[in-house]
Design goal:
Layout lengths: L2 H6 L1 H4 L2 H13 L3 E7 L5 E8 L11 E3 L5 H8 L3 E3 L2 H7 L1 H6 L4 E9 L4 E10 L8 H23 L23 H11 L4 E5 L5 E4 L1 H7 L3 H4 L4 H4 L6 H13 L3 E7 L3 E10 L2 E8 L1 H6 L16 H12 L4 H15 L4 E8 L2 E8 L5 H4 L11 H8 L3 E3 L2 H7 L12 E9 L2 E10 L7 H38 L10 E8 L9 E9 L2 E9 L4 H19 L4 H15 L5 E9 L4 E7 L5 E3 L5 E3 L4 E2 L12 E5 L5 E5 L11 H15 L4 H13 L8 E8 L4
Parallel strand pairs: 21-24
Antiparallel strand pairs: 1-2, 1-6, 2-3, 4-5, 5-6, 7-8, 7-11, 9-10, 10-11, 12-13, 12-16, 14-15, 15-16, 17-27, 18-19, 19-20, 20-21, 21-25, 22-23, 22-26, 26-27
Length: about 700
């Protein structure tokens, strides 16, 4: 095999990405890094290999869109090296990254691309203690390695050589010698004799070694410590604050420390020494802290802890599923308020210069909150001031808030501390989230920052929810205006109708029905405009109006359908409509029907037998301007019942249409003698009970009455 052939096969034969990343990091003494590959079928960068840190550190960015405001996406879109020199610059240019990784570090991101095609991107990071500028040597090395990788990926693509999955580069801490050698045994004996605790943690935070002193200080046997993260195996260390210190030490590669209270009254000091393979932790008694806190009140049981990064990501995901304002309020009350130790919640908005209470939870007397609804935004109360200014306000005691806002002395709530958080989305305040606490509460700097960041997530969800609710009100108002409020009383005909919206999306659609008196007879129509949105509802109104107009001028059923079809084509709509139109003549006992791609009507005779009227017809309205819609005449003796419906009544996932129609026939056979309103309710009840009704339901029942 030639050298060229060997080089071409390299991507399939060896871990190309891992070796490239290792070479890149070694050449510039970087601490961590990752290689992304561009997905073949969509503009998404997917992390292929990460080195130096657990992948959990970069979990929010394992898959990122090319349009996302993150360095690797910018590098690919703009085909250039992106350099972020410190945490201050990161907070300014990429605030979402800074919120999740608030540590001192520098980052470089580069595209992996040839002149013709982009294949992905690479980022590498350094701890904060490095020059803020990238040197020419470092820049040249990073660029050369990325160019070489792009050329190899291009060669592999040309020869259809796949890239095999590669493991992340996480170095396992060395034991310092082969197990059982005199050196390693003596080292273990020496560590076991130390008067302070000593643990080693790998990059995932798992304990690989703990001496007897560490076990004694932590109060957990060594065999229960090994292989577990310290905050998982030691219950009183299960606090995000302590986990964050581990992350800070590992990511920033600098020594960090903290003190923690081992119940009931023993304070311990933890000092974390990072390396590229993990952490060494020194544990000792913090006697000075113990003396200083001897007379201080002990932390309250159940003291709220800072929300973890994992919780933040989970909350963000849950908020994206909230649809309306009520959903947002419920989610904040169920998920966020308990996580931060709050017992009460109020979400405020504004409309027409006045405060609006969008929702509240946890207040024994609702009037305490609802008195603010409709209050002018100029009123000197914290809810309106925070909403106007966009600046959060924290009140650690009742005395503090009542001193600053005497108006709140009237009808005070049962709570004793409050956090007023502005909800800012798209650069403007959309509301205020008020978290209420049952007891006085000190808001530390870290907690204030965390609550403010959470408010940003809530704001985005609330903005979407407010827009959805506004569209929802508009859509329902439109649909109510377009459907008949009541059916007319007609000689010889008894009628009943029902309409149910879909339970997904805007809960509005294009299903419609109508009943119109015509010179001693009656015309009825039922139809379904494609879609479930305001556009479909608007077109439905035009179709219904057109049918009424063509009926009024005396057109026959087939002519009404042809005229409506031409109208839809003239309107240039890209939505199609199914329709069933009929002219009823109860005095002569007949009905003339014309159908355009609509489900067949059902006819129940006076003897209770039900048959499907398989009518001739034409295509959906709005497709073919030359289409014909032939009419069919059927007998309608007294006591006969016509059932007109849209496909939402019978269609459901996994059910054959003919089987569903047969089921409707059976229900009609059994229930057809009920009063018409009761029958209408019974026929739509199975659709009304569906949790995820995908389509609207319209139903029109027409019964021929006996003479006299």
């Amino acid at each position: 095999m030639s050298e060229g052939q060997s080089s071409a096969r390299a991507p399939a034969d060896r871990p190309l990405l891992s070796l490239t990343l290792a070479s890149m990091m070694e050449g510039v003494h970087a601490h961590s890094g990752a290689v992304y590959l561009l997905a073949p079928d969509r503009p998404v960068l997917e992390m292929a290999v990460m080195a130096g840190l657990p992948r959990a550190f970069a979990a929010p960015w394992e898959r990122v869109g090319l349009s996302a405001p993150v360095p690797v996406s910018d590098a690919v879109r703009e085909r250039r090296l992106v350099w972020v020199g410190d945490e201050e610059e990161m907070a300014r240019r990429y605030p979402r990254i800074a919120m999740v990784l608030p540590y001192p570090f520098a980052l470089a991101a580069l595209p992996v691309a040839t002149a013709a095609r982009a294949y992905g991107a690479v980022f590498v990071t350094w701890p904060g203690a490095r020059p803020q500028e990238l040197s020419d040597r470092e820049r040249d090395h990073l660029t050369a390695v990325c160019d070489r990788l792009a050329a190899q990926l291009e060669q592999a693509a040309e020869q259809s050589l796949p890239l095999a999955p590669e493991p992340d580069l996480l170095v396992t801490p060395s034991a310092g010698g082969a197990a059982g050698t005199p050196g390693s045994v003596e080292a273990a004996r020496m560590v076991s004799r130390l008067p302070y605790g000593l643990c080693s943690l790998d990059l995932h935070g798992r304990i690989g070694f703990a001496n007897a002193a560490a076990s004694e200080l932590l109060g957990v046997p060594v065999n229960r410590l090994l292989g577990t993260p310290m905050w998982a195996s030691v219950p009183w260390l299960n606090d995000p604050v302590y986990e964050d210190r581990y992350r800070a030490a590992l990511f920033g590669q600098h020594v960090t420390s903290f003190v923690a209270l081992r119940p009931p009254d023993e304070w311990l000091s933890f000092r974390l020494y990072p390396s590229s393979t993990g952490l060494s932790v020194r544990i000792s008694r913090a006697r000075a802290v113990r003396e200083m806190n001897r007379e201080a009140p002990q932390p309250a049981r159940g003291q709220p802890r800072l929300v973890t990064i994992t919780q933040v990501l989970g909350l963000a995901g849950a908020l994206t599923e909230a649809v309306g304002v009520r959903d947002v309020v419920q989610l904040v009350a169920d998920e966020i308020a308990p996580a931060v130790g709050s017992q009460g919640l109020v979400v405020l908005g504004s409309r027409a210069g006045r405060l609006r209470v969008l929702g509240h939870r946890g207040y024994a007397d609702a009037r305490v909150v609802e008195r603010f609804d409709g209050m002018p935004l100029s009123e000197p109360i914290p809810g309106s001031q925070v909403l106007r200014s966009g600046v959060p306000a924290f009140f650690e005691s009742r005395e503090e808030v009542e001193r600053l806002y005497p108006a709140l002395l009237v009808n005070p709530s049962e709570f004793a501390a409050w956090a007023y958080l502005p909800l800012i989305a798209s650069g403007r305040p959309v509301g205020t989230c008020v978290l209420s606490y049952a007891a006085p509460h000190r808001f530390a700097t870290e907690e204030r920052a965390m609550l403010t960041n959470l408010a940003g997530l809530i704001a985005q969800a609330l903005e979407r929810a407010l827009l959805y609710d506004a569209k929802h009100r508009l859509a329902h108002g439109l649909q109510e205006a377009l459907l008949p409020h009541t059916l007319p009383s007609l000689a010889g005909i008894e009628a009943a109708a029902r309409y149910l919206p879909a339970t997904r999306g805007m809960e509005i659609g294009g299903d419609f029905y109508d009943l119109v008196p015509v010179q001693g007879m009656a015309a009825a129509v039922i139809g379904d405009v494609q879609g479930h949105n305001v556009t479909a509802a608007g077109l439905m109104g035009q179709v219904r109006t057109a049918v009424r107009a063509y009926t009024a001028v005396g057109q026959a059923p087939e002519e009404v359908m042809r005229s409506t079809n031409r109208l839809l084509l003239d309107l240039g709509s890209d939505l199609f409509t199914s329709c069933l139109y009929l002219r009823l003549d109860p005095a002569r006992g007949r009905a003339v029907l014309s159908r355009a791609g609509h489900p067949p009507p059902l006819l129940r005779g006076p003897d209770g037998r039900v048959r499907v009227l398989d009518l001739a017809g034409g295509p959906l309205l709005g497709i073919d301007g030359s289409a014909a819609y032939p009419s069919t005449e059927v007998g309608l003796s007294p006591g006969s019942l016509l059932v007109l419906y849209t496909d939402g009544l019978v269609e459901s996932p996994g059910t054959d249409f003919e089987d569903a129609v047969a089921g409707l026939c059976r229900r009609l056979t059994d229930l057809g003698d009920l009063p018409l309103d009761d029958l209408a309710d019974a026929l739509v009840r199975h659709g009304a009970d569906a949790e995820n009704r995908l389509d609207d339901i319209a139903l029109l029942l027409l019964r021929a009455l006996p003479d006299g």
